[in-house]
Write a structure and sequence with these properties.
Number of strands: 9
Strand order of the largest sheet: 2-5-1-6-9
Largest sheet: 5 strands, parallel
Helix content: 25-40%
Shape: globular
Strand content: 15-25%
Distance between the termini: 18 Å
Length: about 260
């Protein structure tokens, strides 16, 4: 009997802070067999090493907030071994998230579809598929990190929506060198317009035509990027719709792997 090999598929779930990345990741984890969420904050720079801007620690700077070599090494380890490193620690579970459920029938149907096809792949190709759902607000800045991802999704919402959600959330648990449980961070009153918004625009400008982060079409900077726009005029998507779309793409990815093997 042939030995079962593990194949890790890394799925990028990118977007601005408060865009719904983590909620989407949790829904996909409940659907995809053998799936685990990897939060980008596991390699966030500790607050002691963050750049300062306008007198504030800049948690959002695309060139300073994330330790990209460490993230790339982390993702390569996951891909090579099928395992999350023992020192993996995220503070995301301590942060407040809005509950956006999906239709129960949809979840059951999609979970069964993936159970069946992954069982088929295991039986016919002797491959056990493991999903790594990589959730991060700066996933598409560093080329080496992007190249580790097998599928790439990006959530885009209107800036006004993002601002409202950020101001409502306000409190975050952050990385620190000296406290494994993290520290509590509360946004100063002008943190959105001074730090968060400029950093988001800077990080995503090259992804969109004309640098129009809010309305522009995609450039070719991020290969195969799938854009998800829950609040696009005349084409609004519920969380159920978003999950369905992602699962369509992921199912086709598995089918392509199956045909190509």
């Amino acid at each position: 009997m042939a030995e079962i090999q593990t194949k890790v598929i890394l799925v990028g779930l990118g977007g601005a802070t408060c865009s719904g990345k983590t909620t989407l990741a949790k829904h996909l984890r409940n659907i995809l067999p053998n799936s685990v969420i990897v939060h980008q904050d596991v390699v966030a720079q500790p607050e002691e090493l963050l750049p300062m801007k306008h007198g504030y620690q800049d948690w959002d700077a695309p060139d300073g907030a994330i330790d990209y070599p460490r993230l790339s090494k982390f993702l390569k380890h996951v891909k090579d071994t099928g395992c999350i490193p023992d020192d993996h620690r995220s503070h995301d579970h301590l942060n407040k998230h809005t509950d956006l459920p999906i239709e129960a029938e949809c979840q059951r149907r999609l979970a069964e579809n993936f159970r069946v096809i992954q069982d088929q792949v295991k039986e016919s190709d002797h491959i056990n598929i493991v999903w790594g759902l990589v959730d991060g607000f700066l996933l598409y800045w560093n080329q080496e990190v992007m190249e580790q991802l097998d599928m790439r999704f990006l959530l885009r919402l209107p800036l006004k929506t993002l601002e409202g959600r950020r101001r409502a959330r306000q409190v975050y648990i952050t990385a620190t060198q000296f406290n494994e449980e993290g520290n509590e961070w509360v946004d100063p009153p002008d943190y959105w317009e001074t730090i968060v918004l400029p950093a988001y625009l800077d990080a995503h400008r090259e992804i969109f035509e004309g640098g129009d982060v809010e309305n522009g079409g995609l450039t070719d900077k991020v290969e195969g990027l799938v854009l998800l726009e829950p609040e696009k005029e005349d084409k609004e998507m519920s969380m159920t719709d978003i999950v369905e779309r992602c699962c369509q793409e992921l199912y086709q990815l598995v089918r392509a792997e199956q045909v190509g093997s």
